[in-house]
Write a structure and sequence with these properties.
The protein is an alpha+beta fold and about 575 residues long. It has 21 helices and 15 strands. A hairpin with a 5-residue loop joins strand 10 and strand 11.
């Protein structure tokens, strides 16, 4: 089979060239679809359920909310385990599913169970599922703040209103954004403060006020009327939009008198009690965080959010700024630039060595072409297998290993062509050239296949890892294996076809000056080594033992350190510290 593949490749050399050009073009197309991130995402398949209830202690939240939800989730298909956190007024249950479970299928199952358990929870409990995101989903953060030269700065409440009603809805429309979270500022509310002493004196209570506000803050339809052949819809517009409307809500006393709400209560614009705040340079601001949809390209989504935020700035009032404070694109670009730099330098070094040692420009060019073609084929495989390009997956690529098979075939073909020409005393005919290249490739097949397969076998155990280790290192092993397989395919198809196509004219079997110099230096070293082999073996053994002893002192870490260039400070405060005190700190 190997012989037939090589023969067909040489015979249909132009077709092989065209096929691989199309494969390369397809690789370029897939390059723009390739997910790019700084490091692999090791987040497991999980669904979060967040529940809020005012007034319940952590113990009550655990017994009345957390436990019933965890019990309801038990028995869901592919569920691995659940974990939970219960705090004052807050419960978070996280359902962890087995690897490979479709996240949307998992959310559907959780939602069905959640609908069933919600009626049994205490009244006033609000439950919702967390965003379809991962631990690396926070790709963009921005602040909404007053400009330094703003003569009439907006209050934290007004900044929060701009965030909730102007900025957030527009950013939610960016493709790939799953959620926009907000912290800081105050959530605007209408505050009604009843005069309880006066209410008791006229026989009313707080429930009367609540009912009056509820009944007078909704729109209702009242059918229609016909007049002069036309139909008019009738509706009651009672939607509250101002303090005056609330003040004029009618309230009937027990004796039949009608009062206005402003007669029994003080109405003002206030804010909801908050449990968190955001500051910048000592001033309160509003902080927004964009979460990326799972499986999206973090670099593209973060860039799109940044572009959209700049457009949103045009619709904000003068003196208000929405500025990015964290953009994942910066980190990803820095990481990818490092990887690109290393790969480019490695590729250039390999190509230079090929040109210097092969001594044949066209043959060296053929070998060098294996590098970009194998990379483009690898990118296609990465897109197909949903492997992101990151520091781990691309950092393990070695172009020296990738071109190893191509170098063997090119070198063997050049030597055999030169030998055949010297034997016949003339330039070979086209058919003779094709036959000679085929024979050289056939003789080299064991060295090519065995060498590549041995390296591939080294990475196969890595691909069997599971859990966090599997998520971290399996993409790296898969990328290297795909690159080696691509290089192997190129070595037995593209390389023989191109050698047969371009190695025309006279070919001399002579060494380059560099090879000749290296041999001249190496020969006496080899002779000395052979004549003092026992001493050399003893020295190597001693050096091995010494190196092995030093290896016990080496440090170890799970993954390489990645310096974002930022400093993160986490201030720990004693329990019970107020929010106001925390902001001042």
């Amino acid at each position: 089979m190997f012989d037939q593949i090589v023969k067909l490749s040489i015979k249909n050399r132009w077709l092989v060239l065209i096929i691989f050009l199309f494969i390369g073009a397809f690789g370029v197309y897939n390059y723009f679809k390739l997910p790019i991130d700084a490091v692999p995402d090791i987040t497991n398949v999980q669904v979060q359920i967040n529940s809020e209830a005012q007034g319940l202690s952590p113990t009550e939240m655990e017994s009345q909310v957390t436990y019933p939800i965890e019990t309801a989730l038990a028995g869901i298909p592919n569920l691995d385990y659940t974990r939970s956190v219960s705090r004052y007024g807050l419960s978070q249950v996280t359902a962890i599913f087995k690897e490979g479970t479709d996240i949307y299928f998992a959310r559907q199952l959780v939602n069905e169970k959640l609908q069933g358990v919600t009626p049994s929870l205490p009244g006033g409990i609000s439950t919702s599922m967390g965003p379809v995101s991962t631990g690396l989903g926070e790709i963009f953060m921005y602040t909404v703040e007053n400009a330094k030269n703003n003569p009439t700065p907006l209050s934290p409440t007004e900044l929060r209103t701009l965030q909730d009603w102007v900025i957030k809805p527009q950013l939610r429309n960016v493709e790939g954004v799953n959620e926009i979270n907000t912290i800081g500022g105050y959530l605007k509310q209408f505050v009604v403060q009843p005069d309880y002493a006066y209410l008791r004196s006229i026989g009313l209570d707080q429930k009367t006020i609540l009912d009056a506000i509820s009944k007078n803050s909704m729109n209702k339809g009242s059918g229609y009327i016909e007049k002069n052949g036309e139909q008019y819809l009738i509706r009651s517009d009672s939607q509250i939009s101002s303090i005056e409307q609330i003040q004029n809500i009618p309230i009937t006393t027990s004796s039949g008198y009608i009062l206005r709400l402003k007669d029994v209560a003080k109405i003002s614009i206030g804010h909801e009690l908050r449990t968190g705040a955001a500051t910048k340079d000592g001033q309160e601001i509003v902080l927004g965080t964009a979460f990326m949809l799972i499986g999206e390209n973090s670099r593209n989504v973060a860039h799109a959010v940044d572009q959209k935020l700049q457009k949103v700035q045009e619709s904000l009032p003068e003196g208000v700024e929405a500025k990015a404070v964290y953009n994942r694109t910066t980190l990803v670009d820095a990481t990818i630039d490092t990887v690109k730099k290393n790969l480019l330098e490695g590729a250039i070094l390999v190509i230079v060595v090929l040109f210097l040692f092969l001594g044949h420009f066209r043959a060296a060019l053929i070998t060098a072409m294996v590098i970009p073609l194998s990379m483009l084929m690898t990118i296609t495989g990465m897109v197909n297998q949903r492997i992101s390009a990151n520091l781990m997956s691309l950092g393990a690529l070695d172009f020296g290993i990738i071109v190893d098979g191509a170098v063997v075939i090119v070198e063997a073909s050049l030597a055999k062509l030169a030998m055949k020409q010297k034997e016949l005393g003339r330039i070979l005919t086209r058919q003779e050239r094709f036959t000679t290249v085929f024979e050289a490739t056939k003789e080299s097949r064991k060295a090519i296949l065995y060498g590549q397969l041995i390296i591939i076998l080294v990475y196969l155990p890595v691909m069997t890892l599971t859990g966090v280790e599997g998520k971290m290192f399996t993409p790296m092993a898969a990328t290297v294996v795909m690159a080696l397989v691509a290089a192997m395919v190129l070595s037995i198809t593209f390389v023989p076809a191109m050698v047969a196509l371009v190695t025309t004219g006279e070919i001399k079997e002579e060494e380059s000056k560099i090879v000749h110099f290296i041999k001249k230096v190496y020969s006496p070293i080899l002779d000395w080594s052979l004549s003092h082999r026992y001493k050399l073996i003893a020295f190597v053994a001693i050096f091995f033992v010494f190196s092995a002893s030093l290896s016990t002192r080496l440090g170890s870490e799970f993954i390489p350190s990645l310096d974002e260039g930022d400093v993160a400070l986490h201030a720990l405060r004693i329990p019970g510290t107020s929010l106001t005190q925390a902001v001042e700190m």
